[in-house]
UniProtKB/TrEMBL annotation:
Pfam families (UniProt xref): Pkinase_fungal
Gene Ontology molecular-function annotations: ATP binding; protein kinase activity
UniProt cross-references to Gene3D superfamilies, sorted A to Z: Transferase(Phosphotransferase) domain 1
Location of the Protein kinase domain: 78-371
Designated name of the protein: Protein kinase domain-containing protein
């Protein structure tokens, strides 16, 4: 009978459903409490200690958007005296596998990309299969986690098979590059607004090209570092920030930055992707040979640390004499860069003013002034970026969704 009971699932034994009770699979854990010194002196019946034995067990919980999260059971924080099941039991749990896969995000996007929203499918990756590989306990990553605990973020290896897409270097015209960048911003906005997903890793390598029926479409690829907007409170801190360094928003390089990651940070990353491409390349596939002066200084952005990048990006945003050293092939992007940079500069100036106003209000015990941190008080919003990017070199680019086509009718060009 005991042998057969061991074969039952946890819920069959009256244990919490979805609990992977590791102690039930270990013969040593099944000894009576009297044989286990740490529990022999405990108050109450031996069965009362089952929760101490369950430390380390895994528990699957249904989460939002049809996803599953797995938590690991830690120690008991509080347990009512009396019969089990008739009192409150509080146990600490930690997230064991809470990284949402790119496939999960894309499945949610496909659910919503119907009717007037179907256009966005041309700008998202088509994923056929994904797999995850956890690091075993013998790996350096696991050892770092044991040593540094919460100061070290455990990762996993994730792979996928998806439709083949082309890199930016495959494009042959500057207008084609502009259309791809504009497409990516439209796609990013749709994902932020409807499935409420924030990408958080805009880089040149994650902006790809799909060719379909002779037309090119910009594709925003690699959503593995994305996050649901409702999960922003679980987002990166000053220890765990996401992004590719040369393209990260300037604020993220500061040691004092603790999040949250906002959509304007991704839009600022688009600005840096464009800046580095048009200053470091003669064409999408031909890199500049190092000159004495000019835009080649941005090559150092791929090699330096956060302190260096914060200073350099500060020069770009705040130096009154700054101008982009755009190569002739990409000359039309100079207007984009100067206009977007001006919007960012004004927004950060407004943020500095707001911080001073907050200090004054605090000193005088007055009501705190309001400020829209997502858009730098509307100086750097989706609308401002789209009003710049919908036209390149006096040529109207393709606005994909009907929502933005209607919006553009009422937006002034910057």
């Amino acid at each position: 009978m005991i042998k057969q009971m061991r074969a039952l699932p946890p819920e069959g034994l009256g244990i919490v459903p979805n609990l992977d009770a590791t102690f039930m699979k270990d013969r040593k854990s099944l000894r009576s409490a009297e044989e286990m010194p740490q529990y022999a002196a405990a108050d109450g019946p031996p069965s009362n200690e089952i929760f101490e034995w369950s430390e380390g067990s895994l528990f699957d919980i249904p989460y939002k958007n049809k996803t599953i999260r797995t938590v690991r059971v830690k120690r008991v924080l509080f347990r009512s005296n009396g019969i089990i099941g008739r009192g409150t039991i509080v146990m600490r749990v930690v997230c064991n596998h809470c990284n949402v896969s790119e496939q999960t995000f894309m499945d949610r996007c496909r659910e919503l990309a119907q009717g007037d929203h179907a256009w966005v499918l041309n700008h998202l990756p088509h994923i056929y299969w994904t797999f995850d590989m956890q690091y075993s306990e013998s790996t350096p990553q696991a050892n770092f986690k044991k040593k540094f605990k919460d100061d070290y973020e455990m990762r996993l290896m994730r792979g996928s098979i998806q439709e083949e897409l082309r890199p930016l270097s495959s494009l042959t015209t500057a207008t084609g590059c502009a259309q791809v960048f504009y497409d990516v911003v439209q796609c990013h906005h749709w994902a932020w607004k409807y499935p409420q997903i924030l990408h958080r890793d805009i880089s040149q390598g994650n902006i790809l090209v799909r060719e379909k029926n002779g037309e090119i479409y910009g594709v925003l690829n690699d959503w593995d570092l994305a996050i649901w907007l409702n999960d922003q409170r679980d987002g990166p801190t000053s220890k765990f920030r996401t992004g590719t360094k040369p393209y990260m928003a300037r604020e993220q390089h500061g040691i004092e930055w603790e999040g949250p990651h906002r959509f304007r940070h991704d839009l600022e990353s688009v600005f840096y992707v464009i800046l580095l491409l048009v200053c470091l390349y003669f064409s999408p596939k031909v890199k500049v040979v190092k000159p004495a002066t000019g835009g080649f200084m941005y090559e150092e952005w791929h090699k330096q640390d956060d302190q260096f990048l914060r200073g350099e990006k500060g020069n770009v945003l705040h130096d009154a004499n700054w101008e982009p050293s755009v190569t002739p092939f990409f000359c039309g992007f100079a207007l984009w860069l100067t206009t977007l940079r001006r919007a960012l500069r004004r927004g950060f100036a407004r943020l500095a003013d707001h911080k001073e106003a907050m200090e004054e209000a605090l000193e005088r015990d007055q009501e705190m002034p309001s400020f829209d941190y997502d858009t730098l008080d509307n100086y750097f919003s989706y609308e401002k970026v789209v009003s710049v990017m919908h036209r390149y070199d006096d040529e109207e680019l393709k606005t994909r969704g009907s929502e933005w086509r209607k919006t553009l009718l009422g937006l002034p060009d910057l």
